[in-house]
Structures are given as C-alpha cells and as structure tokens.
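Hey L., structure's done. Input below.
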Amino acid sequence: MNDSSAGDVICGRNPVIEALKSGAPIDTVYIDGNGGSLGLIRRLAKEKGAVVKDAQDKKLTQLSGGASHQGVVAIGACGEYVSVEDILAVSQKKGTAPFIIICDEIEDPHNLGAIIRTAETSGADGVIIPKRRSASLNATVFKTSAGAASYVPVARVSNLASCLDMLKKNGVWIYGTDASGSSIYDTDLTGAAAFVIGSEGFGISPLIQKKCDFMVKLPMFGRINSLNASVAAGIFMYEAVRQRSAK
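Output:
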C-alpha cells in the first residue's frame, strides 16, 4: 500500500497538533520519537482514534515529499469512520435483518475499495475493518469503490474478536468464509448475518475463525482453488441477496 496516496499530508509538530485538536479526520500518524510535543501528539492521536506508527526519518521524508517534518507526519482520512452501533442502527431503521461485511486484515486498498463498492450495491448495512493490518479509507479505496465509500458506513475497531462478540450479543450470526466450510448454496443466509472476508494471502486468522458461528465456502470446479478476496466477497454478498429476496 502506498501510504502517501492516503489523503492530505500534514507535516510538522504544530500543524499536526492543531489538526488533531480541530477534529480533522486523521487516519494515521507516523512519529519518530516520544519526548516533548511528540508525546502529546501520540496521546491526541490515540484519543481521536487515529493509528499511530513508529517511523524513521527516511520514511517520514518520503511521506512528506522532502518537506520539514520535525519527526511527525499525519495522513488525513478521505472519510469518517462510524461505530459498530451506527451500522446496527442502519438495519433497525430499515426494519431488516442486519447484513454486515467484516474484513479481516484486507491490506490491499483496491480489494477493500471493491468490497465496499459491492457492499453498497448489494444493500449491506456497513463494513467493519480492524485498526491494525488493514487498508483504511484512503484515496485509493475511494477511487476503487467508485464513490461507494461515500455511502457505506465503515467502522474501524481496535479488537475485531471483541467486535464479533458484540455482534453476537445483538443477534447477528457470524459467517466465516473459508474452504473448510459448507457450500454457501447449502447455507441459510436469510437471518441476521455478518460475513468475515479473510486476508488476501492468509485467509481468516485463527482467533477470528474460532469466533465464527458457521464456515462457508464457494464450490471450486477448476484447477485454481481460490478467488481474489473482493471477487469472493461479491459472490457471498449476492447469494445472501438472492436468498433474502426469495424469502
């Protein structure tokens, strides 16, 4: 992922502090050091829900385009995140069973953008991503989503496992997508459902797999036994749409 494509780049201690204090949407803050005002920036960034990453001077210089950075560069988000409660409120308002997409460490922004695009067209209530090891709402995601990221609520959570527990308490069944599961076409998807889409290279993490109520798969008939994450996500979503429409 090219971090410099993520949105507005803010360089320097005072500009970053003021941006955080003003409530500007900040996605990630890269910092080299801990003392003085850098410690304040770390605290403010965490309070605002931004991801904080340690970075060396070479990385900061790359992100800032050679401008003076004083040990800190902030990357603005191209959209605001919502809470998981906000996503659950969408289905409550529509009077329908929750229909949620969860991305477990989808790091390619093109895949995340494509998933958000299909989530919008399929009528999903929202998308949930983890704060770490995930693409974020950057410019590439917005472009790939063809504008859908402006309409689909996206929640970014610190602990995905805890998020799944919270969804279960709200009556949502968790469907993990993995080759070890049952065929998606033999599975009832008409109720409250959240689909977990695993990372491009490793699939769903073991901890998240344990949290899933069901594991489902797409039948494979060719010599290639896997699909691109966003393509697979689209097929899962539209099978849910088909079943819900026929209900």
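The longest strand covers residues 173-183. The chain has a mean pLDDT of 90.

-- N.
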